[in-house]
Amino acid sequence: MIKTRKGEIIVTNEKQNLLLKQLYGTAWGRCLLKVLTLPAVSAAAGAYMDSPLSKPLIKPFISKNGIDTSQYIMRDFHSYNQFFTRRIKPGMRPVDFTPGHLISPCDSKLSVYPINENSIFRIKDSHYRVRDLLKNDFLARRFEGGYCFIFRLEVDDYHRYCYIDSGTKTGNTFIKGELHTVNPIALERYNIYKRNCREYTLLHTDNFGDVAQIEVGAMLVGRICNRHEACSFHRGAEKGRFEFGGSTVVLLFGRDSVIPDPDLLRNTAGGFETVVKFGEKIGISAK
User: Fold this and answer.
1) What is the pLDDT of residues 127-144, one digit of tens each?
2) How far is the first Cα of the chain from the last one, in angstroms, to the nearest whole number?
């Protein structure tokens, strides 16, 4: 279930959820998943979505998902991926530049979990270790006692993401894997955040210390497109984008570095994700 920041409960993508229940909840569906989750299949799907042959998919997608096109820079897109990675109009996603405020890197459905001394957190009845995400035990231990923010994007969300603060970053580390959907239905059966393709970097931020940011690929998302390797960056600047499908951004914070907004912790504890938008305040610095 999902809540807005005002507390209203919303339900989204019921038809998509029905299909995913068939794929993940039946024997025939899981056999099909063995093919659909192969990176080569996602690469082929990505090539199609980059081609002019995919252009007829745009209008039905807008209609089916109720996309508010007035928020976006709409032009004569030559492929579905050009539309999918469309840019938001100036002013539609104002960024909070208050130094001590933590901002959301993207439009998404957010859950926030404390990282305990064993670096284990729980998502929809599945347990995940931070070291499973990073495949780096030394780095994972740096976030013990902190928080894990999980931003789940659906297909109708804006699929570009920004830097949460100013600072410098390391290069990007890519971890190969399968490409499952990041819908909660899949989380009931698979450790998606352990098995999916993903890419992470360490952000040395001005106000929140060292933060690990992980972009997780999803079913038929062939590309996580980060714009920079090691560099300096500024709050609100575009860090990258996902192409085609739902995806996830994960932020890992160390001990005594951030205080999440209370409604986010309350909603997560109650089993709800919270709708957040690119650039809006979701916490404060603990420094």
Assistant:
1) 568 888 888 889 999 999
2) 33
